[in-house]
Amino acid sequence: MAKLGKRTRAAREAFNGKENLTVAEAVSLIKANANAKFDETVEIAMNLGVDPRHADQMVRGSVTLPNGTGKDVRVAVFARGPKADEAKEAGADIVGAEDLMETIQGGTIDFDRCIATPDMMPIVGRLGKVLGPRNLMPNPKVGTVTMDVADAVKAAKGGQVTFKAEKAGVVHAGVGKVSFDEAKLVENVLAFVDAVSKAKPTGAKGTYMKKVALSSTMGPGVTVDVQSATGN
Predict the structure, then answer these.
(1) What is the pLDDT, as a whole number, of residue 2?
(2) DSSP notation for 112-177
(3) Which spans of this chain does the record mark as coiled coil (predicted)?
(4) CATH architecture, domain defined by 19-68+161-230
(5) Residues 145-159: what's their mean pLDDT?
(6) What digits encode the pLDDT tens for the residues 1-23?
(7) Could you report the per-residue pLDDT of 109-130, keeping only the tens digit for each?
């Protein structure tokens, strides 16, 4: 424990006084100071100038990271008949209808992404209070309510990340692993920021992208220069 404490203190000292770095500088700093015994996720947090309580200021979308997430994503699909078969063939981990709804209602949520065909939404809708807070509710705006279940499953497995502005206008997501090459992490970060930028809602006023920060799962965070992240 003492050694871990020393490494943690050293990492925090390395971040002292560091702010508004370029994306490349931030990624390099995070990789150099990630000291957990597992492959930490590189996480991005963006503070946006929106109030998600207003429908015209909600930020929601998805992006397929060019280098994937490094995570084994478990996908659940609500579908019947041929569409259920398509989902299974595409690699879905869990496929069902009422039976899947009952499993989730019973407290078992063994998946990271949930997809549904449109005809399944009356069933899925009953799970709003369970899936909604976990950001797992299927939504046509991010491509998780669709008849193209095979493509949706492949996208989820291939590095697609969904995002949604939470309270205070914060968007948070994992954009790769610290074991990734720096260049690949930078690519992923820029792709994610670009997707959030393009998802700017019509009701957003003033400065849209206020702050961007990067961190590893167990490490301290560092702010990134917004212009560096957006290319402006």
Answers:
(1) 42
(2) SEEEE-GGGHHHHGGGHHHHGGGT----GGGT-B-S-HHHHHHHHHTTEEEEE--GGGEEEEEEEE
(3) none
(4) 2-Layer Sandwich (3.30)
(5) 95
(6) 345 455 556 666 777 767 889 99
(7) 999 999 999 999 999 999 999 9
Torsion from C-alpha of 99, 101, 161, 169, nearest 10 degrees: 180
The residue whose two tokens read 């997809």 is 115
Q: Identity (one letter) of the amino acid at 215? A: S
CATH architecture of 75-157: 3-Layer(aba) Sandwich (3.40)
Q: Look up tokens 């279940």; give the residue.
A: 149
Q: Minimal CA–CA distance to 160: which of 93, 129, 118, 115?
A: 115
Where do the structural domains in the chain lie, given as residue ranges? 19-68+161-230, 75-157
Q: DSSP assignment, residue 179?
A: T
Contact between 141 and 60 under an 8 Å Cβ cutoff? The reply is yes
